[in-house]
Amino acid sequence: MPSMIIVLMGPAGSGKTTLASALGEWIEENQEYSVGYVNLDPGARILPYKPDFDVREWFTIDKIMEKEGLGPNGAMIRASELLAERRRDLRKIIRGMKKEVVIIDTPGQSEIFIFRKAGPKITDALKFIATTIGVYLVDPTITSLISELATSLFMGLIIQLRLDIPVVPAITKVDLVKLDLGETFYIGLEKVRELAEQELKGTLQEVIPRIIDVMIDYMPPIRIVEVSAKTGQGLEELYQLIYETYCSCGDLT
Ligand SMILES: Nc1nc2c(ncn2[C@@H]2O[C@H](COP(=O)(O)OP(=O)(O)OP(=O)(O)O)[C@@H](O)[C@H]2O)c(=O)[nH]1
Ligand SMILES: [Mg+2]
To answer: For the purposes of burial, counting CB atoms within 10 Å of the CB of 98, is it exposed (0-12), middle (13-18) or buried (19 or more)?
Structure first.
């Protein structure tokens, strides 16, 4: 039975699937824990990891579209309902995995997973099995401004409240974008706040630092990791953040 479950979330194309594979390999090699992989994306095509459970065994977006005469968005919503309905089966499957860590790759359409019923129902089921930590991926190739970065990071806090699990934010694909936010792979939220105050004007300059203050108060880590699934940069730091969050949750339960 697993003792830690990591749920990767983030907007379409933010790098969930690639990170699932890279982080899993890193943990297996460097922590010597066995890692199980779960694909919850019924629209996935090719996966870079070998899933121990794949939701496509139950249904795929293509099949739902065909069978129920739905378009792609309708089929994704339907898929999230089906997933919520089968959460007990999923719980049984994951509980039965002989792996210490389980990494969950979520559907591309994160807003459907997170803001419809599937997300909270699934995380409720997972919490029965093991300490469950969310990682919210922020894609710097689409969030170039400091105000966008701050609001994207804030999304992690919203998800934490909605899914009722601790959420660690991570900036992905840093091999593509050079973020000049700090000297290490970690960025303090204080630094983001400082930049926001310097660079923003008008209402944004008032609102964004206040949003960051709320994050500082309510999110588990007060630093954000920059990671690249392609080069491996920041994987160790991401794991450390997840592990610290895991330990502090463990203390409370
Ligand atoms: N350069 C670079 N590209 C990346 C990285 N992570 C992911 N990508 C690329 O970004 C694209 C999307 O990556 P995925 O891992 O499929 O992202 P996803 O969030 O699972 O996407 P959906 O499930 O479709 O929402 C792919 O072309 C990846 O090769 C990274 O760290 N660096
Ligand atoms: Mg994916």
So the answer is: exposed
Per-residue pLDDT tens digits for 208-219:
999 999 988 888
pLDDT of residue 148: 85
Alpha carbon of 47 to ligand 1 centroid (Å): 11
CA contacts within 13 A on the Cβ side of 101: 22
The domains found in the chain, sorted by start residue, are 4-138+162-184+227-248 (3.40.50.300)
Mean pLDDT of all residues in 104-110: 91
pLDDT in tens, 131-181: 999 999 999 888 878 888 888 889 999 999 999 999 999 999 999 987 766
If you measure from the C-alpha of residue 22 to the centroid of ligand 1, how many angstroms do you get, rounded to a whole number?
A: 11
Distance of alpha carbon 39 from alpha carbon 20, whole angstroms: 9
Environment of ion ligand 2 (residues, CB < 5 A):
16-17
What is the best residue among 7, 9, 17, 235 to mutate for testing ligand 1's pocket, by most ligand atoms within 8 Å of CB?
Answer: 17
Ligand 1 center to residue 232 CA distance, Å?
Answer: 14
